Amino acid sequence: MMESIFEVEEGKLREAKIITRQTSDGRGTISFRNYIVEFPFSLKDKLGIGKLLAVNTIKENSYLILEVADIIPMHYGMINLDSTIPKEIRNEIMKKVGESWYSNDEKEIWIDSITYPLGYILEVNSNNIQFKKGYFPPLLGSSVKILNKKAYASFVCANSNVSLGNILHEELSLDINLEKAIKYHLGIFAFTGSGKSNLASLIARKVLDNLPDTKVVIFDVSMEYAILLLDKLLEVPSRVVSLDRVPLNPVDASRKFLRSHVIPDDIIDIRDKIKKGAEILHQNGKMKQLYVPPEGFTYLTYADLIDLVKKQIEDKYTAISQKPLLYTFLSKLDSFMRERKLTVDDIIDDSINKLLDEIENLGKDAHLKENSSLFTFISGIRAYISLGIRETEDYDIENLAIEILDSSKDSPRLFILELPNLEEGRQVVATVINQIYNRRKRMYSDNPKVLFIIDEAQEFIPYDTKQKDKSEASSTAIEKLLRHGRKYHLHSLISTQRLAYLNTNALQQLHSYFISTLPRPYDRQLLAETFGISDMLLDKTLELEPGQWLLVSFKSALPHDVPVFFAAENNLDLLKDRINKL
Description:
- With 582 residues, this protein is α/β, with parallel strands linked by helices.
- The protein is 36% helix and 23% strand.
- The protein has a 12-stranded mixed sheet, sandwiched between helices. A 6-stranded antiparallel beta barrel has the order 1-2-5-4-3-7.
- A hairpin with a 6-residue loop joins strand 1 and strand 2.
- Helix 8 (250-260) crosses helix 9 and helix 12 runs antiparallel to helix 13.
- The two termini are 53 Å apart.
- GO terms for molecular function: kinase activity.
C-alpha cells in the first residue's frame, strides 16, 4: 500500500517554526506554522513548489499533509559562515563550496524544503487510504514521504472531465468541478498582463461547452471579450449588446467592430477572419443596441409609493388631521397588495384607482379642504397613472432580462454587454442584476442558471462607494448577487487588479480564487489571511509567467482546500483554431 501512494525517496523533518506577523489591516496578528524538511540534493528536480508531502504524526498510521512553499539548496560549509570570519577565509570556503555543488559527492549538500500544513490528515490502513480534515503534531526527525502522481491526483483533482490546464511540476491535468465552482462564486486576481481576461474567457468557454443549462453574461469594460469569445458568439445563440448605435449593414458593422475592440497581438494575423466573423454576427441579428432611458427616468413602483406616503407622514408641515388618513392609506395599500399578490418591485397602474377613490372619500368625510396636501398628493399619483407605461420595440434592459432568463433551447446563452463608459456602465450593471434577481425571486426556477462575469471589478464594487458616480448602485447590486444569488441559481465571477480597492463584504463571498502576479504586499497578505495560506507560498506568485495561476478553493472547484499552481489552457489558441475554420 505504501508503495502505491508514495515515491521511493524520502526526507527527514528537521525543524518546526511558528511565524507571526501583523494582519494586513494592522489591527491584530496572524501566525503560520512552517516545517523544514531535509531532502537529499539528488531530489532537487522532484521538489517543485506545490509538491505534497506526508509526515508521521503522534497518531499511529496518520500522516500530516504538507505543501512545499520553497526549496533552498544547503551546504554544510556555509552554515556558520558570517561576517565575523576573516574575508580571506570566507572567500576560500565559498570557493570550495561553489566547486562542490557540481561534484558527485553529496555528503555535504542537501535541499531544505520550507513547507506548511494544509490542515489534512492522511490515514493509511491495509485496505485503503483516506484524507480527512484535521491536524496532529508531526514527529521531528521522522521520515517525510513524497506523494506520487496517483495519490496527488486523488487528493487534489476533482473527478470530472473539465480541465483548465496542467498542474505545474506534476505533469497532471487540473480537473475541476466546474458546476460547483461557479455555484459558490469565483475571483480572478492579478496584475495587468497576467492573463485575467484570457482565463475568464476560458472559464466562460468551459461553461458553455459543459453546462448546457447555464448562461453567461459578461460586463465588458475593456471591449475585448467579443474578440476573445468570437467563435462561441458564432457557434451558440448569443448577443453582443452595445450602448452605441449598431450600423445598419454588415460591412459597416464589421468595420466599427474592428475599430472599437482590442485585438491581442497573438491573433492579429487573423484580423480578416475576425472581420468576417463580425459580419456574420450582424447578419444573424446578434448585435443589439441597448436602450437605456434618460437619467432620472423610472417607473413608479409600490416601494416608491410606500416611501412617498411615509415621507408625507414624517413631514412636519403635514397637518395633524391628515396623518391618520395617511396611516389608513398604508394599511389599505398593504391589503391591496396582499390580495393581488403584488411585490414592492411591481409598477403601479390604473388598478390602484379604486384605492385612491376610497382614500379621497375618507378625506371628504373628514372635511379636508380641497387644496389639502392629501388631495394634491392623490392627484399627482392619478396624473402619473394616466400617462401609462409606454410599450416600445427597443431592446431595453427588460427585454435583455427576459432573454437571459428564457429557458427555451433556442434562446441566447452568451451575452456580452459592452460598457466603455464607466458611469453609465455602473448603472446598467446595477439595473440588469436587480431586474434578473427580482424576476427570479418572483418566479423561482433553477433553469437557466446564470453566470455573471464582472471585468475590472474594482470599478463596480469599490471599497469607497459614491452615489454620484453610480458606484454605490453597482456595488449594492453585486453584493446582493454574491450574498443571495446562489439560492436563485445566479452566480458570479469577478476579475480585478487590486483587492485593496474592493468591497470586502463582496470579497468574502467568493469560494475560489485564481491568483497570479500581485506586486503589492497588502494584496497578497489579505489573501493569505483569508485562506490561511503561507505568505511564502503567495510570494511565489511573483515568479509566475503570464497564463500561470495559483488556484485556491474552499471545497468547490476542488474536493479539498489545496492551493495548486497550474498553467491554464491558452484561450487564444482555442479561438484561433476555431476561427480559422470560417
